[in-house]
Amino acid sequence: MKFMKLGTKADTFYTEQATRTLISEIAADLVIQINDITYLLHKFPLLPKCGLLQRLCYDTSDSESVSLELHDIPGGEDAFELCAKFCYGIAINISAHNFVPALCAAKFLRMNDSIEKGNFVGKLESFFNSCILEGWKDSIATLQTTATLPEWSENLGIVRKCIDSIIEKILTPPPQVKWSYTYTRPGYTKKQHHSVPKDWWTEDVSDLDIDLFRCIIMAIRSTYVLPPQLIGEALHVYACRWLPGITKLKSSGSSASQREESKEKNRKILETIVSMIPADRGSVSVGFLFRLLSISIHLGVSSVTKTELIRRASLQFEEATVSDLLYPSTTSSDQNYYDTELVLAVLETFLKLWKRMSPGAVDNSYFLRSIRNVGKLIDSYLQVVARDDNMQVSKFVSLAETVPSIVREEHDDLYQAINIYLKVHPDLSKADKKRLCGILDCQRLSPEVRARAIKNELLPLRTVVQLLYFEQDKGSKATSSHKLPKPHEILLGAKHRPATRDTQSKQSLGLSKEEFNGEEIREKDHHKTKRSDGKLALDLEKKMVIRGDIEETQSEKARVVKDESSSSSKVDLDPKKMVRRARSKSEHGVKK
User: Fold this and answer.
1) pTM attached to this predicted model
2) CA distance 11 to 3
3) Backbone conformation region of residue 300, classed left if phi is above 0, alpha if psi is from -120 to 50, else beta
């Protein structure tokens, strides 16, 4: 940073108790009181340069000692001492860090060129225009110090000139940037990168107070020169610089008053950042939105800010990864480690926003692809939160059921999440197991996963029976076919075949909003029917066993003479024995 040196004499000021004076053979005749400090000075060097002191000492004689109180001088005793040393010719250094209080104090004392040519105000203004405003970091540092004297700085035009200088440099094309800047991104070194990054200015600007930072960002946005993503990056850098993480928020060891003061400051920062996010989709990442949302819950921001964050996050929900959703719970009443309520709120808003859109507003194929990506994201998220010892079945099921049935083409990921939950919570009651496994559609499991699920000892008996029923139903359909149809026969048959649930999901690429809602209702009705079928476990077992007996009879007939008849044997309908027999057959088939 640049500085200006004025004066040549040695500094002879010294302190004695609460009194500041300087070594001199002449007795002090000017006593100035500023706050708790008393200055013992002389009229002859100060009065010729200070218009205010001339007016205050106008009615006094030259030999008379004068006492004055200047408690309201801007910058306090430090700024006054700079002005006093200038009058004495003592060497001082003016830089971006002390320029603002020095200029405000000099203006207060009326040290203008009209009082004496080459006075302090003129030299300070010349340094400001030729050095500070020409430099990048000098302008930032000077603007930062205006926070101590906001009214004076605003009235003297310091704030406006600094902001204009900063904005002018930010809008400069990166190849033309020749000044020094701070850029500490991981993996970036200036020696390896000869070109200037587009976001070179974001870290230095993040040192400013939130109000000054907002002035810079809003002025840049009004020019429409920089892309929204660059504005979003600046907001992200500022949030990382000033907003603490969740762990620090929860483990703060300061007093109650300090915590409340810090909380209020962080709340203002967060709400200001949210208000500056560009409306363009993708201007900030969805991970950044989830981080702000997680912090906002702890800080207790306004409902408007929280609603806006949820809305923005839902618009980009399909772009999220599981790591973007993993934030610890901040509420004291919630015993869960992960904040599932946050994810649930964004998911519900995401579904509401898409359902409101008219069929012509968005391509249906893109719509289904996006919501199916969200469905896979939620199932992967469930696999992580299932490892939480304190995760309640009700919250787990609520989050899983919020995803529409049409979204999940397969239930393999959902089964994996349920399996993890059952392993981590071995003491689960039968009712909770029934409720947990009730969200699983056995028909939508792949053959490999269904085979593993049949042998899963953690699943309730009812679910295993359903799995065996669908497995045998599928096997009976396969064995009943004498030959495979030709491709053109498949196509002709598809035209007259009634639509199943899976084909309805695929046909929904062209559904209107009303049809999509109707599809969800039909899916829910089918889901209820599946559950009612699950309640009739013995009926399913009987169907499965009888079907198995018929298949055995048919295979026996095939091995003997075609027209030879045989009677079917009696079967034990004990469900537990039936499950063990089916599992052993499944294992025997795997070995073969």
Assistant:
1) 0.77
2) 18
3) left
